[in-house]
User: Which sequence fits this backbone?
């Protein structure tokens, strides 16, 4: 599906180009039609007709070159039009017009209109609607003096032909522009979708494996310490747990790639208690039950908050507290792993620079919370570091 707009634009561009080339070649068919319907030519007329025919073919060649340049210039990949070509183009146009006026063949007057219309159509691809209208009006104004040598009906037919040629070419080029804009929008949307998917995978991998790798590190260190103390049975159990975590990581990778990664409040709280306990950190969970609509978002906060505690703090106690008030659920994760040195900082903008719990994962977590209309911040209270996240309750629960 991604290639369809590109192929369609290319095909339609080829159609517009070749139809324009056909339009700017109409003086040839008009000349031949006039000669077929003309009475037998005299010796003098044959020379004039030959000269007009040569000039007509030269005009058509110039029209095609100019129209090709116009298309390239519209796409900003054309060079400057050579002055010599412009001069030649105008001279052969004048020669065709002079010849068709000199020849005593009424049908050749239509050939003159075709010559003017084809020349004007050659530059239509680089004109907008206003400039095309001005060109059309200019041609009509310049044709007014021809009333002295042409019948009004014939002149009107010729000018209608010129106007039709101009606007047919312009409408085709306009449709090509619309299709190209549609193609560009499709490509932009595809690029945006790809970027969003990459961001999702990056964020989910960080959220999932930050916790998993931290758990593996903690349990591996615990197993090493147990081996050092001679408690081989307990160490073997911890190593089996490390193996299980590694196996689970493979499953989580597939879930992240498929986009069906989910987390639960109960699972994250239970995992946090077990992981903190393995690291010798006391974990206390208090507060009100978390409503189901808010559970997943706050579960991600628990995952990231506990991961940061294990990675960046020297905490011995952690508390998870939930409260429901003013139409929102507030989760507070506090740990006592902050040293006395260093000023307290808050990060309500997602910067997450508060020592000792800094990390890009907090920024991703802040983004998750803000995306659902919530708020989050980190701050210090003495030797305690607090991570607070509030998620709005659904309207029907307020």
Assistant:
């Amino acid at each position: 599906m991604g290639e369809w707009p590109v192929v369609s634009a290319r095909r339609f561009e080829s159609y517009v180009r070749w139809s324009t080339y056909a339009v700017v070649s109409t003086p040839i068919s008009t000349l031949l039609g006039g000669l077929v319907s003309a009475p037998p030519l005299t010796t003098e007329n044959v020379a004039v007709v030959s000269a007009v025919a040569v000039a007509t073919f030269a005009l058509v060649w110039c029209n095609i070159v100019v129209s090709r340049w116009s298309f390239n210039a519209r796409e900003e990949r054309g060079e400057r039009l050579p002055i010599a070509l412009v001069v030649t183009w105008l001279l052969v146009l004048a020669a065709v017009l002079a010849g068709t006026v000199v020849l005593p063949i009424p049908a050749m007057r239509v050939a003159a209109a075709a010559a003017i219309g084809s020349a004007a159509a050659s530059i239509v691809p680089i004109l907008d609607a206003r400039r095309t209208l001005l060109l059309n009006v200019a041609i009509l104004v310049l044709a007014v003096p021809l009333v002295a040598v042409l019948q009004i009906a014939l002149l009107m037919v010729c000018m209608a032909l010129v106007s039709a040629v101009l606007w047919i070419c312009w409408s085709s080029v306009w449709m090509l522009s619309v299709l190209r804009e549609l193609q560009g929008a499709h490509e932009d949307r595809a690029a945006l979708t790809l970027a969003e998917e990459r961001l999702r995978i990056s964020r989910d991998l960080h959220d999932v494996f930050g916790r998993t790798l931290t758990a593996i590190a903690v349990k591996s260190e615990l197993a090493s310490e147990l081996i050092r103390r001679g408690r081989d049975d307990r160490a073997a159990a911890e190593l089996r747990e490390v193996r299980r975590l590694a196996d689970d990581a493979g499953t989580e990778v597939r879930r992240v790639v498929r986009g069906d990664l989910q987390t639960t409040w109960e699972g994250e709280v239970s995992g946090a208690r077990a992981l903190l306990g393995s690291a010798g950190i006391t974990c206390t969970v208090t507060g009100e039950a978390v409503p189901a609509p808010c559970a997943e978002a706050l579960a991600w906060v628990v995952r990231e908050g506990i991961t940061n505690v294990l990675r960046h703090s020297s905490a011995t106690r952690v508390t998870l507290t939930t409260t429901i008030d003013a139409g929102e659920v507030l989760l507070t994760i506090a740990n006592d792993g902050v040293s006395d040195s260093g000023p307290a900082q808050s990060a309500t903008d997602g910067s997450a620079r508060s020592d000792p719990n800094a990390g890009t994962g907090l920024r991703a977590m802040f983004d998750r919370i803000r995306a659902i209309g919530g708020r989050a911040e980190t701050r210090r209270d003495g030797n305690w570091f607090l991570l607070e996240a509030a998620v709005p309750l659904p309207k029907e629960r307020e």
In short: Residues 5 and 166 are 27 Å apart (CA to CA).
